[in-house]
Specification:
By secondary structure, this protein is α/β, with parallel strands linked by helices. It folds into three domains: about 55 residues; about 130 residues, Rossmann fold; about 160 residues, Rossmann fold, CATH 3.40.50.720. Strands 9-8-7-6-10-11-12 form a seven-stranded mixed sheet, sandwiched between helices. α14 links the parallel β11 and β12. About 50% of the residues are buried. Bound molecules: NADPH dihydro-nicotinamide-adenine-dinucleotide phosphate. NADPH dihydro-nicotinamide-adenine-dinucleotide phosphate (NDP) binds next to α10. NADPH dihydro-nicotinamide-adenine-dinucleotide phosphate binds next to α10.
């Protein structure tokens, strides 16, 4: 085994050398590689075919200029990215992120994780991710539209229902998908709903797609709790962020009998001991696009802490749903000390490696993003199925399918962890289970 681990370490050093400065990508790769020692020991063909080295190198990386004019007529220039990481299991699939922090290293970490997440869904989708360092915050609708049109004017040539199918992520919701779909249709003169997911319900979108990531993450935590003969009933919960994933996580927690007392945005934290008023949060964030701070204008009993740390609020279930590396080792230790028994990651890689170590050592139920937040992309794949069949499913039917998919992902991760002698370790279960399917497809496809 030591020999195998040494080989994997050499591969990781090569990744560091070939991708300098891309720290988030390094972190995502290390987390997967650390789990693969026993897998390649069982499957020497993966080493012979150099599957790990190939999987760490994206199939294609596209970087492009996005020029656009703001409302004052000033010309602005952003950078656009699409990293088409792996098509072993299907067309590249993964969201677009618009946030000032976006650079190649972030897109590659997200694209890499997406390969294994998509594999875990059991659906025929490969892995990719994209985005831009454009900041939609504070921009008018017209500015966002002009940016999206310029972005799609380059991206369209790389897309297609059998090639690459983007969706939303941070900063990209229904509004942005609409503008990009419109521009795609205009340039190509083709009404191709299968080219983007997260579309509006009257023009090819799927019911439950908006809710899917948050609902799915909550279903996943529910399964982890059930495996420990427990449930959400009466649990105090905290959910970071107040965007798409956070909102529908809070909704499903409340439906399952939990009480969510805190959420946040990048400016601060809201604490409402009576339980968050979700209708108000939806109005503030989805309709009026305001800051979470405005919650206390309506609910004077609640508290707002500017630049506060949500993980200091005692809870039994924590669901990070904002961004990467938002829980460090100290935060994780605080959560455990305060009685947290389950963590479900709605966000991608929200816990640092030190934080993950704390959760695993404490043996709490810890669901990594790759498994826990796969409900979003799974429902995107269901949207693709409906588009291909020119069909439209009911909310109840689609939600049932989502729940079944999350139960399956949970069980596969759980059983894989058992098989590899790491009972209850969903990180190992998710990484191994996601990897093996992709690796077998790559062996079958030959050296490409
Ligand atoms: P949104 O843009 O809808 O919401 C993001 C939320 O997180 C906002 O409240 C935002 O606050 C906050 N946030 C973003 N960056 C930071 C930061 N650096 N520090 C503190 N808070 C921050 O995005 P989503 O809800 O779609 O995505 C949230 C997470 O879930 C991301 O990690 C994403 O990759 C992941 N995810 C999303 C999926 C989806 O279907 N949408 C699917 C799978 C994973 P503010 O408004 O102040 O920026």
């Amino acid at each position: 085994m030591a020999q195998v681990d040494a080989k994997i370490e050499t591969m990781y050093q090569e990744v560091l050398k070939r991708n300098p400065g891309e720290t988030e990508f390094h972190q995502a790769v290390l987390e997967v590689l650390e789990c693969l020692g026993p897998v390649v020991a069982k499957h020497p063909e993966y080493l012979e075919r150099r599957i790990i080295e190939r999987i760490c190198e994206p199939e294609r990386q596209i970087i492009f200029r996005v020029p656009w004019q703001d409302d004052k007529g000033k010309v602005n220039i952003n950078r656009g990215f699409r990293v088409e990481f792996s098509s072993a299991l299907g067309p590249y699939k993964g969201g677009l992120r618009f946030h000032p922090s976006v650079y190649l290293g972030i897109v590659k970490f997200l694209g890499f994780e997406q390969i294994f997440k998509n594999s875990l869904t059991g659906l025929p989708i490969g892995g990719g991710k994209g985005g831009s360092d454009f900041d939609p915050k504070g921009k008018s609708d017209d500015e966002v539209m002009r940016f999206c049109q310029s972005f799609m004017t380059e991206l369209y040539r790389h897309l297609g229902e059998h090639t690459d199918v983007p969706a939303g992520d941070i900063g990209v919701g229904g509004r942005e998908i609409g503008y990009m779909f419109g521009q795609y249709k205009r340039i190509t003169n083709r009404y191709e709903p299968g080219v983007l997911t997260g579309k509006g319900l009257t023009w090819g979108g799927s019911l439950v797609r908006t809710e899917a990531t948050g609902y799915g993450a909550t279903f996943f935590v529910n399964e982890m709790l059930k495996a420990r003969k427990d449930s959400f009933e009466g649990k105090t919960c905290t959910v970071s962020g107040s965007g798409n994933v956070a909102i529908y996580t809070i909704e499903k927690i409340h439906q399952l009998g939990g009480k969510c007392v805190a959420c946040s945005d990048s400016n601060g934290v809201i604490y409402d001991e009576k339980g968050l008023d979700l209708d108000l949060i939806k109005r503030l964030k989805e309709v009026e696009r305001r800051r979470i701070e405005d919650y206390i204008k309506t609910h004077k009993h609640a508290k707002y802490v500017a630049k506060g740390n949500i993980w200091e609020i005692p809870c039994q279930v924590a669901m990070p749903s904002a961004t990467q590396n938002e829980i460090n080792g100290k935060d994780a230790a605080t959560l455990v000390k305060n009685g947290c028994i389950a963590v479900g990651e709605g966000a991608n890689m929200p816990t640092t490696p030190e934080g993950v170590k704390v959760f695993l050592e404490a043996k709490i139920a810890y669901g990594p993003g790759k498994a826990a937040n796969a409900g979003g992309v799974a429902t995107s794949a269901l949207e693709m199925q409906q588009n291909a069949g020119r069909d439209s499913w009911t909310f109840e039917y689609t939600e049932r399918k989502l729940e079944d998919i999350m139960i399956n992902i949970h069980n596969n991760c759980f059983e894989t962890a058992e098989e590899y002698g790491a009972s209850g370790n969903y990180v190992l279960g998710a990484n191994i289970c996601g990897f093996i399917k992709v690796a077998n497809a790559m062996v079958a496809h030959g050296l490409i």
